[in-house]
Amino acid sequence: MKRLLKTTSLFSLIAISGSAFAQSATDTANFSPRLKIASRYSLWDSYRKNEMDVFGSTARFGLNYRYKNIFATLEVQAGNPSEAYTNSSSQGYATTNGRESLFNVRRANVGLDVYKSDPASVSFVFGRDRIVSSIVYGPDAMVENIATNLDNVSSLTSSDGIGLKYAGKFDFGMINFGIGSYNNLAAATQSTGSGWFGNSSLVVGDNSFNSSPKTQSRAIQANLNADITAGDGVVEARVGYGSQTNAVNKITTTTTSTTDSSGVTTTVYTNTYKVFDVTNTEASLGYNYMNSALRGGVWYQSVTTSKSQTGVLGATNNIDNYTASTTDDSQTINTVGVGVTGNSKLWGMSDLLTTGDVLTYSLAYQNANGQLVSGGGGTTGVTKFTNSTLTTDFYNVGVGYQLEKFALEFNYAMINASKEIYTDNDGKANATQASIFYLMAKLSL
User: pTM for this structure?
Assistant: First the structure.
């Protein structure tokens, strides 16, 4: 309770004086809050028997800081209080996060403007960042849960490193560019089974937020964003590319015990790393009319992974020798989608319950193909399949209510697959379709 009161007091403090001119580096005017609270209530779904409950909640908060040519961002998200395994300790065995898993660090970086003029600035950013390379248009299910673009990847997958960023504001609009070197390329794929309503990280992030990397593998990521004024709206263009050699996909810990003649048992812990080369290309193009009264667009993503290899991490955080997989598990996953959102302001309907509120609507469709999946066999009643190419079609419709940064939305989402990768409400993975109907409430600052 004391920690909660301290956190609440901090947000109260930084919200007091947004308009005050900062006289020193510690003035409260230098700070602004980041806050996202979302809760989803399942009214019906196809894959469980215990619907009518809260699921997929988000509690995210943080701070933005700006003083002269220095800036910083801190953002954390409530996590799972489990003891997930992270990197190996100095003794050679896997260690746990413990209580640290209660909060996942999404952003923690500090930056320096090395050039700043009226139209443009050039900055260096150091630390943990989230790379935004595309916009997904649609309801909550599509944008916040199913989408696999970099901005929607799990908070457990970090991108720690150094980046160079350019931002320019001109008469015709805004242009932003960024490039950097990071420890992880935060790529993801669609999830399957009973956890289909989300995405799964391809590259393992280091949630411990310590100085010791898993391996010496590094990613290069770049993005280019443009917002161009056109008529009564803005053309929104985004493109991004990233690649990483020997990116860590999975860590397996094994133990070997030996007993000497005197009865003393020695146990050796070995961490085996599964790695592959990965690339991620993203792009989106949309139009925002009358400040989101009508907004829509298309998006594209292509993720490739090479044939995997395995190796044992050495004492210097390096893998000297790799063993190639005996099967070709390389993938090329292509995703394309289209969506539109809008509100009742477009036809002059607003101020329903209070000044400025509107009714909202949104719909989206997405097709993805190329992901390798395995399943069937056992008690599923489905013929077993291994490394089969998957094609999915996702449909999402939403209607709701909005007041500035608050949104209330009914969502219906359905996905069809070419293979039996989803569970029925008895927990058997024998379904090619999954669907859900739920109510979402969100406040995002």
Answer: 0.87
Which amino acid type is present at position 440? Answer: M
Using the structure block, give the residue that is written with the tokens 């399942």: 42
Closest by CA position to 346, among listed 406, 290, 427: 290
* Alpha carbon distance 376, 120 (integer Å): 56
Give CA–CA dist 90/307, Å, rounded: 30
Give the tens place of pLDDT for each residue, 335-381.
Answer: 999 999 999 999 999 999 999 999 999 999 999 999 999 999 988 88
Which parts of the chain have pLDDT scores under 70?
1-22, 50, 79-102, 155-156, 205-214, 315-317
Question: Max Cα separation, the chain?
Answer: 87
Is the separation of the CB atoms in 399 and 363 below 8 Å?
no
Residues 36, 442: Cα–Cα separation, whole Å = 7
Burial class (CB in 10 A: 0-12, 13-18, 19+), 137: buried
Whose tokens are 């690339």? That residue is 279
Separation CA 212–CA 262 (nearest Å): 37
